[in-house]
Amino acid sequence: MALVKIVYASMTGNTEEISEILENTVQEAGFEVEREECSEVDVDFFDDADACIIATYTYGDGELPFEFEDFYDELEEKELTGKNFGVVGSGDREYGDLFCKSAHDFVTALEKSGAKKVAETVEIENNAEADDIEALKKFVKELTASL
Questions:
Q1: Is the pLDDT reported for residue 55 higher than 90?
Q2: Residue 34 burial (CB < 10 Å; 0-12/13-18/19+)?
Q3: Other beta carbons less than 10 A from residue 108's beta carbon
Q4: Which of 13, 33, 111, 142 could in theory staple to 26 by disulfide, Cβ–Cβ 3.0 to 4.6 A?
């Protein structure tokens, strides 16, 4: 059975809730899943994954969450060729062009590591509402179709 691994950072609980929705949706699709908060793992967590998911919020003026900085730095040095991935971001539209910037930064870093983006990035304002949950289900369907 294919293994999907989710790493997330959450300050307000919104992204943690999003990661739980992702975890449940992956399980419902019939795949094995492991979900961890980013300060509990390093980038080697993805070594045995068939697909990788990052769920992150964007802090302040488009900055990575503090607790995700070490993971991100390690990711820039990691070789993930052959791994499929997708990224989900939460943020506040008040920040304009910086909305969900961290999610896009992670897409760039994962692509540089050799991983292949197989699901469109989902951007969620604050907490997941009904439309967002549908977008997350579509995201999981795209991601798991590659396995």
A1: yes
A2: middle
A3: 11
A4: 33
| Total residues found in the chain within this entry | 147
Q: Strand, coil or helix: what is 83?
A: coil
From residue 108, alpha-carbon distances to 61, 111, 137 in Å are 18, 5, 23
pLDDT above 90 (res 66): yes
Residue type, 34: E
Instruction: Please give the domain boundaries of the chain with CATH numbers for all domains.
Output: 3-142 (3.40.50.360)
- Both tokens of residue 116? 């292949």
Sign of CA dihedral 145, 45, 115, 111: positive
- Amino acid sitting at position 94: E
The pLDDT tens digits for 98-132 are 999 999 999 999 999 999 999 999 999 999 999 99
The whole-number pLDDT of residue 60 equals 86
